[in-house]
Automatic annotation (TrEMBL):
The keyword Protease applies. GO terms for biological process: proteolysis. Residues 406-566 form the NlpC/P60 domain. SUPFAM superfamilies: Cysteine proteinases. This is NlpC/P60 domain-containing protein. It holds the Pfam family NLPC_P60. It comes from Allobranchiibius huperziae. The lineage of its organism: Bacteria, Bacillati, Actinomycetota, Actinomycetes, Micrococcales.
Length: 566
């Protein structure tokens, strides 16, 4: 066999030591630099396509702690606007160009490559010192044409969920989201946010506005869009767009000056009780959209809506006093029922998406306010009336009191057309106007068939009787909301067991009650409401399967209180 010849005087041991020493020195060098020895300059880039289908080049890089910085221009003196986080050949680049000298971990280079960052989707430049290889060029990456400033990002045409033609454009998103302003001025107030970086957001058009500076970028260009949180229409300053931050290619111009945002239409449907209602888009501030007791912010908040978009429904719109929120003012209001307490009230139109002073397709409640002042108790006792209700003769009752009792009794009189609504219906009587409605099927509340019953529940019946007597729908809502509303209305007297924790029984208060008093039962007035008829009897819609009518007062339940209206 063939022998290996050694140089005279050289043994194999010193050679082995030399190799081991060389490997050790290489390892020390690697440890001292914190990353592997650069590959050869022959490490090239491979042509391919990015996620958007653009022709790009995949090149090998190494990634320091925190990611590879992406600079706004070809100088380390410019701002870091983004980072790359994947090593190896997972990152892609558009082209290479010369720029300022960059230094990292002992390497220097004047070569730069243009790319899009991972965090914000910002287009910028990566110095070649982060490329594997000789760190001053990379094979196969073509030269950038034109200047070294990043050009505006191109938008591509598409359609939004409503089928409207829009432009999808790349943006970067700061913590908390990209702000959407009410108009083309940062002083107009933030009405919404965009929460997705990259090209996931769409825009209607672009136009000039006031100048705004963010992250060292300044621009007077704005783009119109709809936000993610509240569905509010507004404007995004161009400083949040990837590219040169002052324009973007391919987006059509808006008309000038900025038109008010388009109003979103309301859609005809039915509320959970089956009543006719309209679903209209709203935006929701922290704490919810306030519902007021009437069409004035001074009337007090009686409830809230908590869902944005078009998940909320409304009965109708009406004019009222001017409300101002977030720089918007409007005298339009919409009638609805709140989420917390089931109270009926009014939402000022400033919470509606669009131009905040009207919404398409929501019908009018009628001329003027739907909440005229209810009749006050007569100061001198007023003219008392004799008459009968539910077959019982009464003398000396205030006229409105007797009328309310008579109207409640109509569902018990067989000769009256209202008798057909005498069967209790869970959630019945809560339509857009007082009157019987189909109830809700709710087996958990002992009402498995009530969505097939046209009638009243307890609060629906009291609401209707009061409305028939006065012409004013002032006791709309459910029992707990009616208690608060009755106390807020002009009234004659209150028998208030609630002041004692609501722990009293109604028979403890019978001596204080008079016919026509409205009675509430349960903690926070949340169980039942009825009209007292005298002699320990009450007129009420009591429970599923029963006819509405006269029962004994509910002595077994907690008595919350009573209100004498006149």
């Amino acid at each position: 066999m063939k022998e290996d010849r050694l140089h005279p005087g050289v043994t194999t041991r010193p050679r082995i030591l030399t190799v081991l020493l060389g490997l050790l020195l290489t390892s020390v060098a690697t440890l001292s630099l914190g990353w592997s020895t650069p590959a050869h300059a022959a490490d090239g880039c491979t042509a391919g396509h990015n996620a958007s289908g653009q022709s790009v080049y995949y090149c090998g890089v190494w990634v320091p702690s925190g990611g590879i910085p992406v600079y706004s221009s070809t100088s380390q003196g410019s701002s870091v606007i983004d980072h790359l986080h994947s090593g190896g050949t997972a990152n892609w680049f558009y082209c290479s160009t010369s720029g300022g000298t960059a230094t990292a971990s002992g390497y220097k280079s004047t070569s730069w490559a243009r790319s899009v960052g991972d965090d914000n989707g910002a287009i910028g430049y990566v110095p070649a010192v982060y490329f594997s290889g000789s760190e001053n060029y990379w094979a196969g990456l073509p030269s950038c044409s034109g200047g070294t400033g990043s050009s505006g990002s191109s938008c591509h045409s598409g359609t939004n969920k409503s089928g409207t033609t829009v432009s999808y454009c790349g943006i970067w998103t700061p913590s908390g989201g990209t702000p959407v302003y009410a108009s083309t001025s940062s002083g107009s107030g933030v009405v919404d946010h965009l929460n997705t970086a990259g090209t996931g957001n769409w825009f209607f058009c672009e136009q000039k506005g006031s100048s705004i500076t963010v992250g060292g970028y300044t621009s007077s260009d704005w783009a119109k869009t709809i936000g993610d949180d509240h569905g509010a229409t507004g404007y995004v300053p161009a400083v949040y767009f990837t590219g040169s931050q002052n324009y973007w290619a391919g987006m059509p111009a808006c008309s000038t000056p900025a038109p008010p945002p388009s109003d979103d239409s309301c859609t005809l449907g039915h509320n959970p009780s089956g009543g006719t209602a309209y679903y209209c888009p709203v935006w929701v501030p922290s704490g919810g959209v306030p519902l007021y007791g009437s069409t004035s912010t001074s009337s007090g908040v009686v409830d809230h809506l908590h869902t944005g978009g078009s998940a909320n429904w409304f009965y109708c719109r009406v004019n009222g006093s001017t409300a101002t929120v977030g720089g918007y003012s409007s005298s339009s209001w919409a009638k609805t029922i709140g989420d917390d307490n089931g109270a009926t009230g009014y939402v000022p139109a400033v919470y509606f998406t669009g131009s905040q002073d009207y919404w398409v397709n929501l019908p009018s409640c009628g001329s003027g306010s739907t909440n005229p002042t209810p009749p006050s108790p007569p100061s001198n006792g007023g003219a008392n009336t004799n008459g009968s209700a539910c077959g019982t003769a009464y003398t000396g009752l205030p006229g409105l009191t007797l009328k309310m009792m008579q109207q409640a009794c109509r569902v018990t009189v067989t000769s009256d057309s209202m008798y057909k609504y005498s069967i209790y219906a869970w959630d019945g009587g809560h339509g857009s106007t007082p009157g019987p409605t189909y109830g809700s099927c709710d087996p958990s509340n002992g009402a498995p068939n009530d969505c097939h019953v046209d009638g009243f529940d307890c609060s629906g019946l009291v609401r209707w009787a009061y409305y028939q007597a006065t012409g004013v729908d002032a006791l709309d809502g459910y029992t707990w909301g009616q208690w608060s509303k009755a106390l807020a209305l002009p009234h004659k007297a209150v028998i208030n067991a609630a002041s004692h924790g609501g722990s009293g029984q109604v028979d403890n208060y019978l001596s204080q009650l008079k016919p026509g008093d409205i009675l509430w039962y349960g903690q926070n007035a949340g169980e039942h409401v009825a009209i007292y008829m005298g002699n320990g009897k009450q007129m009420n819609a009591y429970q599923s399967g029963d006819h509405d009518g006269i029962t004994s007062v509910t002595t077994g339940d907690t008595f919350w209180g009573a209100v004498r209206m006149w």
